[in-house]
Description:
Structural class of chain A: alpha/beta
Largest interface: A-B, 59 and 59 residues
Oligomer: homodimer
Largest sheet of chain A: 7 strands, mixed
Distance between the termini of chain A: 36 Å
Amino acid sequence: xxxxxxxxxxxxxxxxxxxxxxxxxxxxxxxxxxxxxxxxxxxxxxxxxxxxxxxxxxxxxxxxxxxxxxxxxxxxxxxxxxxxxxxxxxxxxxxxxxxxxxxxxxxxxxxxxxxxxxxxxxxxxxxxxxxxxxxxxxxxxxxxxxxxxxxxxxxxxxxxxxxxxxxxxxxxxxxxxxxxxxxxxxxxxxxxxxxxxxxxxxxxxxxxxxxxxxxxxxxxxxxxxxxxxxxxxxxxxxxxxxxxxxxxxxxxxxxxxxxxxxxxxxxxxxxxxxxxxxxxxxxxxxxxxxxxxxxxxxxxxxxxxxxxxxxxxxxxxxxxxxxxxxxxxxxxxxxxxxxx
Amino acid sequence: xxxxxxxxxxxxxxxxxxxxxxxxxxxxxxxxxxxxxxxxxxxxxxxxxxxxxxxxxxxxxxxxxxxxxxxxxxxxxxxxxxxxxxxxxxxxxxxxxxxxxxxxxxxxxxxxxxxxxxxxxxxxxxxxxxxxxxxxxxxxxxxxxxxxxxxxxxxxxxxxxxxxxxxxxxxxxxxxxxxxxxxxxxxxxxxxxxxxxxxxxxxxxxxxxxxxxxxxxxxxxxxxxxxxxxxxxxxxxxxxxxxxxxxxxxxxxxxxxxxxxxxxxxxxxxxxxxxxxxxxxxxxxxxxxxxxxxxxxxxxxxxxxxxxxxxxxxxxxxxxxxxxxxxxxxxxxxxxxxxx
Lengths: 340, 340
């Protein structure tokens, strides 16, 4: 399989991207990459890695792309005008079937807009959805949608449930993932207009293991596999979690440093903190797949380091091995057949 | 001032309520209470406290209310039918001006429905809003609305901004609190239909220090005072924070207990963990005021212990001392005058 990787997307590009690619290549031998971006800069960066680069040289292709889309660019405009950008060129490779999956740590808005405009939706998919896997007390939970669609209709949420289910089946091998709507109460009558209407549709929907509402505070218990919501609420949950983890660890640090004895205690517990940090760290969990697009799309975190990029590449491998695009196509096709 | 306290609301009622009242009375001498609930049970509970009770006896009145509204009751129905419940009787005392503020740790739905139906909105207030103060890295931030209105119109968010501002001025003495809309990006164009429309209204609104959008992850940075949102999103943020804190502390505990040395280290850092827990604990921050109602309403957390109840009583003191109801009335009045 082959991945198109935007070498100039993200806060630490291109260094972290190149390093992440070589790191992933050390672990997995079943993929090649096409890196998009300034050719000379990419080559220069690769050559810094000496023998690590030489070893994997045959698996790396470069497609020159002199332009860069930044977070300041208006996404739709940038996709249309910056045809020579690393992001657009990488997406084109997936659109043209030159690559199986696209990976970028660049502007979320541009990735979403570009994937929809250039690679396009799978026919029958109402809206693509950003679907990160979030660490919980047990196995990770998929929160879908996490930001692709700020305003949703109930039917979109039903499709999100199916696309998430397809992911769990195809990629994670879980046959009957538990699907819930995230809401402000578990009872059927709880929620806003959108979730109440989606609940009414989901409880009669075939091919899903719909278990009802999941309270906001229970997303991280690990008792659900696929949690559906509109992209605004999903973003609220995801970013509130990130913000809370960050604030909590800062507070803990300042408390621990406030006395000599607790400072010493903290030093002794260092490995525990380290494990916790890595359990909570998005970097270990790869990027978020954008489901419903006619090709693999992985949006890595903007601040991705090389480990995060390697994780995102590993996630791309799983997406392609599980043929998630084909699975979603099959679901939409069957659904349309049944309704005719 | 006098508070009407639902002695039979909450997971630890009536024990925690009675104990919390006596605890608050030890600290502050400027209030009396009317406790509603089963008279014999309340008396029995009070008498367990011996001299602590005797000392404050003159400040405590009991209004017999044999019935209880539970979380299983449908709120609006329960308010109308369970006229002899501790919750309804306590609300009636505020409605009849027998008490200045109502406090309950009972069903949120019933408190919201009851306050609106019995105590009623301040004329001109479109929707009352639940407005807890949330711990941050600096001073607490008010998240308004946190659950009273699952679906909102842009005008509601504008009023929430004014009510929150009134609270900061009147209760906390902060003259020009920073108001933001919580959204999925800081730029003006970011958000869903609701927040974009609210942004357009708020940027031209007089009498507010509107600073733009606040990203979800930045709610806890302490860089904002009043953060407005619809009640569904507010609930998502608040409960995601609660869920994350709880999951994170559980993970940390299990990591710390995984080796002898880190266990020992944790024991040495115990005081730091304790301070952190109390900084993050809603119990130390009192309950959430319901703003926009024609009388003080405090919703305490369902699992409130005596400390939480004492904090909620202290918050009720501040609400009444700041005359928040009068301040919101004044804002609505001026607003209506200006528009005529």
